[in-house]
C-alpha cells in the first residue's frame, strides 16, 4: 500500500466549515472503508478559537445528518504546508491567506478550493461562512461539503487503486 493521502481543511476560525469538512470526510472515509488511505485534519487562519469545539449550531446541524463534528480548533502552521498532501480552503480569502504562507511552488500546488471538487453545485465558487447567518447557511455548508468530499475521496480512491462506489 502506498503512503496515506493527507488532507488539511482550512477556514477562517476552524469552528464551522473546516471542522465540518473534517467530520464529513472522516464519516465517508469510514463508510467506504478507506481509513487506511487517508489522514484528515482541519485548521483555521486565525487563532481566535484555538482549543474550542466547533460552533454549537454547526455541531447540531452535523449531528442531524449523522456526523460528528468534535475536533478542537487550531491555527494553521507553517509546517502544515510541508506535512499535508492537499490543503483545501473554503473561500477566496482563505486561498489568499494560505497561498501567502507557501514558500515553494510545490506547496502552492497543494492548495485548492473545496468547491473545485463539487460536482452538483456548479454555481458555487466558495463554501460561504455560515457564522452570522441562519439555519439555511449551515445546511448549505453541509451540502457543499458532502458534494466536494465525495469527489475528493473518489479521486483519492483512484490514486490508491481502490474501488469507490457512491
From TrEMBL:
Q: Which Gene3D superfamilies match?
A: 3.40.50.2300
Signal peptide residue numbers? none
Which keywords fit this entry according to its UniProt record?
Hydrolase, Protein phosphatase
Q: What is its EC number?
A: 3.1.3.48
Give the matching InterPro entries: LMW_PTPase, Ptyr_pPase, Ptyr_pPase_sf, Tyr_phospatase_low_mol_wt
Q: What class of enzyme is it?
A: hydrolase
What Pfam families has UniProt attached to this entry? LMWPc
Domain Phosphotyrosine protein phosphatase I, first and last residues per copy = 5-155
The protein here is known as protein-tyrosine-phosphatase
- State the organism of origin: Xylanibacter rodentium
Amino acid at each position: 500500500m502506498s503512503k496515506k493521502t493527507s488532507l488539511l481543511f482550512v477556514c477562517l476560525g476552524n469552528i464551522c466549515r473546516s471542522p465540518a469538512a473534517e467530520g464529513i470526510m472522516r464519516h465517508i472515509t469510514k463508510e467506504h472503508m478507506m481509513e487506511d488511505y487517508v489522514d484528515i485534519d482541519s485548521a483555521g487562519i486565525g487563532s481566535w478559537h484555538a482549543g474550542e469545539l466547533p460552533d454549537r449550531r454547526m455541531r447540531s446541524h452535523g449531528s442531524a445528518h449523522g456526523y460528528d463534528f468534535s475536533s478542537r480548533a487550531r491555527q494553521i502552521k507553517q509546517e502544515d504546508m510541508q506535512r499535508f498532501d492537499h490543503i483545501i480552503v473554503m473561500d477566496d480569502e482563505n486561498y489568499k491567506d494560505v497561498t501567502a504562507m507557501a514558500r515553494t511552488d510545490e506547496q502552492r500546488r497543494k492548495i485548492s478550493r473545496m468547491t473545485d471538487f463539487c460536482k452538483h453545485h456548479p454555481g458555487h465558487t466558495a463554501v460561504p461562512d455560515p457564522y452570522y447567518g441562519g439555519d439555511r447557511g449551515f445546511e448549505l455548508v453541509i451540502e457543499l461539503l458532502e458534494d466536494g468530499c465525495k469527489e475528493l475521496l473518489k479521486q483519492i480512491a483512484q490514486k490508491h487503486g481502490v474501488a469507490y462506489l457512491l
